[in-house]
From TrEMBL, chains A, B:
Keywords: Decarboxylase, Lyase, Pyridoxal phosphate. One of its GO terms (cellular component) is cytoplasm. This is Cysteine sulfinic acid decarboxylase. The keyword Lyase applies. GO terms for biological process: carboxylic acid metabolic process. The lineage of its organism: Eukaryota, Metazoa, Ecdysozoa, Arthropoda, Hexapoda.
């Protein structure tokens, strides 16, 4: 079997695959070891000299390829490393990883039972279970439906499209309401994907003010709904956030649900980040009211540390996906099949071919149990509380706002800036601190933590974790490292 | 390190990962072996008894998990098997597989250079190279731009959105043209995702007639454009197909490009299936005219047998993704970074977090060279031509239409049905043949090949291959198996 052929043969590939998997297993442990850097920074031009990215006419041999694998690993960011706190994902779950590797071997697409029998039943199981958890359906019967989506942004987009479908159908079955006259509401701290997908759906998005904690201001919501109605627009949907990206705020779901009920609006809850809390008896209180949502977005690859990507869009409207999306395509969803075609789930999706994202999640769930996810979350919440306490305790650290979730936003204030009133251009100088520290930590490879400005606030750091391999000592390490880098500014 | 924690530890997980990877490597070879069945059919209820899908409170132990992995593999479809000819993807490329496994270890998301330095440069390299191939840019300079998308449907959706953006901007910068007045055209044999995403973008899709080979009828396109213009609608976009799903037809790109030029329309070419031909000097002639497209969709996971999924949307309009999609989000795309932020590609996407699809493709390209992809395609085209010849030669087989690409659509006609005129309800009885054969082959596990009806035509089979591990003997096997199953109907 030649290398241009697209299946493996034992003579040519067995040894190669064995060598590669041995390397990959080593990589898994190296990438999470505190003895190694979280990254090895190289300027783009430099990196292009280290790795020859060019695509050639002729093949490279297997020894070359082994070398390339090692280099790719070496210069990639170790997102599973305890000091990677840069995004709303991290960790390298060993069971999740196995789930991914198995998914790759199956190389499947989930649209029909015929092509993906195991994966179809797995998806149904996970969706049913999550519906019962989010919608508190004690009988565990399938009260709604769900979709696996390639990321949370996409899921928000589908939710907007569903809300419009529902609204048009509801308003005297009037399918002719122009998108130009539809308006949806979300907070100014909501995820930017709502603006992007508002554009795609051609629907105006009105931003609602947030309070000092980053929560949607309910009065402003009411005022703006009435304003739009006065203009003659249809106010069809509100998108609340359970865990905003920067501050980790939870919009007041119960009050928003009341308003949606009053004004006949679809309520979508973007719980991409906060949704995982549903697994914790102690902390799921932050999601109170979520069962009133018409649709819920939940990213298992965020708080639960499932590998990238695993996003779910859940809805209580059992048949709306099929109604809104199906095109009854005869070449894929034949009705003269010999098995029950309700298991051919593909037609309820906006995708056709679809990489299976369920297996890694399901496999982790088997390996940890529901109780394992709960321990994972409770551990993360405990460390975040500790982080917050430390910010309050230590000189030179200041909270941006009082957090209720994982996100702890804070300023590091170098000693030269600590007496606020006496310093000219204080805010401007504080604004410059975080980028400088970020550059230093990146070049040193010692820590990855994100910074940003928000509204009128100067640049600040955002602490977040999803990796429950992080421990108390790591928390102290972050403070020490920031002080260390910061004082040498 | 406990199992609920989200990073691996050597003591607890090294042996487990080694056992799993040994199993997975065995699976890779087993799944493509002709000695094993392509599937082991089980009814849904039966399969649920074999695998306990339920999600439990408590964890399962590692031995249980090893057993589960083996079962999942056993009852999943072997999409890499030479007798899997059911979809527009197949094969199990060993280098693509390694690329996936490495991607899983990196567990990254491509939006900033900071978080994905290697993957960002890799994406830029592949996009640049493909632009130079499709747009025949001899200098190899980046004349346009590209996006990696989670599947071709999504890419078609983005193309529609881009076309609208471009049109609104062009028409005197009038951003207020309502979507209700926008109309796009595609053929009745085009992919159903265009209808689905027309809905999402809230744009009407007018279907153009096809000829006997499945190609768009140019006269009908002109007539319908004029009709819509008379109604006062804006005819802003035509979507041509290079390789339709069922018949494998290529719309006449040059004539359609002329019409688009004449009427000031955006031309999108859905080359999800046919696009891979660009790698073959001999067969890329089928794509003649594609360089005139404003945007091109190309699925590397189809004809090139890259693992699921690897879809690219290319455009000749260099800055349109950024213009149409960017929201300049301060928490991710900070402008006060210490490195050039043009490498933070995320803001040109409609997604935020995004699983890297480039590595497997890039790695395969390194392993095979451009010349390897060419050999792969030329082999597939040769086998398809052989398949067509055999259909013409053999009693009981009949072409649905004369094919020009990989797809060979044909009827198997059991001997009891061979004298057409003398049989009452001939078409109805022929229509029932394919589903019956499909049931038999599925239950026997001997072959997977798809059937469908199209327009007025009764059910027929569609032969397709993307797996260049398939050989001449396999082609004869398909005929023998169909005859064998068919005559016992």
């Amino acid at each position: 079997m030649s290398d241009w052929q697209s299946i493996p043969c034992i003579e040519r590939h067995k040894e190669f695959l064995e060598k590669i998997t041995a390397i990959l297993i080593d990589c898994a442990f190296e990438s999470v070891s505190r003895e190694n850097p979280v990254l090895r920074w190289r300027e783009p031009n430099h990196l292009q000299n280290i790795i020859n990215f060019n695509l050639q006419e002729q093949p490279r041999d297997q020894d070359d390829l082994l070398e390339i694998v090692a280099k790719i690993f070496k210069y990639s960011i170790k997102t599973g490393h305890p000091y990677f706190m840069n995004q709303l994902f991290s960790g390298l779950d060993p069971y999740g990883l196995v789930g991914q590797w198995l998914t790759d071997i199956l190389n499947s697409s989930v649209y029909t039972y015929e092509v993906a029998p195991v994966l179809t039943l797995m998806e149904n199981t996970v969706i049913k279970k999550l519906l019962s958890m989010f919608y508190k359906d004690e009988n565990g019967s399938m009260i709604g439906d769900g979709l696996f989506c390639p990321g949370g942004s996409f899921a928000n987009g589908i939710a907007i499209n569903l809300a419009r479908y529902w609204f048009r159908k509801k308003i005297q079955n009037n399918k002719n309401i122009s998108s130009t006259n539809l308006v949806l509401f979300t907070s100014e701290d909501a995820h930017y994907s709502i603006l992007k997908w508002g554009n795609v759906c051609d629907i105006e998005v009105v931003l609602i003010k947030t309070d000092e904690y980053g929560r949607m201001n309910i009065n402003d919501l009411k005022v703006k709904i009435l304003e739009e109605q006065k203009k003659g627009n249809y106010t069809f949907c509100t998108i609340a956030t359970a865990g905003t990206t920067v501050l980790g705020a939870f919009d007041p779901l119960i009050e928003i649900a009341d308003i949606c009920e009053q004004f006949n609006m679809w309520l979508h809850v973007d719980a991409a980040w906060g949704g995982g809390l549903i697994f914790s008896r102690k902390h799921s209180v932050l999601l109170r009211g979520i069962q009133r949502a018409d649709s819920i977005l939940f990213n298992a690859h965020k708080l639960l540390a499932v590998p990238q990507q695993c996003s779910l869009l859940l809805t209580k409207h059992k048949s709306i996906f099929k109604e809104a999306h199906s095109k009854h395509v005869p070449y894929l969803f034949q009705k003269d099949k010999f098995y029950p075609t309700d298991l051919d789930v593909g037609d309820k999706y906006l995708q056709c071919g679809r990489r299976p994202d369920v297996l890694k999640f399901w496999f982790m769930w088997q390996a940890k149990g529901t109780s394992g996810f709960e321990k994972h979350i409770d551990h993360l919440m405990k460390l975040s509380a500790l982080f917050k306490e430390e910010v309050e305790k230590r000189d030179g650290f200041k909270l941006v706002t009082n957090p209720c979730f994982i996100n702890v936003c804070f300023w590091f204030i170098p000693s030269t800036l600590r007496i606020q009133n006496s310093i000219y251009d204080y805010e401007k100088r504080l604004h410059e601190v975080a980028p400088k520290l970020k550059e230093k930590m990146t070049k040193r490879g010692s820590l990855m933590i994100n910074y940003q400005s928000l509204h009128e606030k100067p640049n600040f750091f955002r602490f977040v974790i999803q990796n429950s391999g992080v421990d108390t000592q790591d928390i102290f390490y972050v403070f020490d490292e920031l002080e260390n880098l910061g004082e040498s500014t």
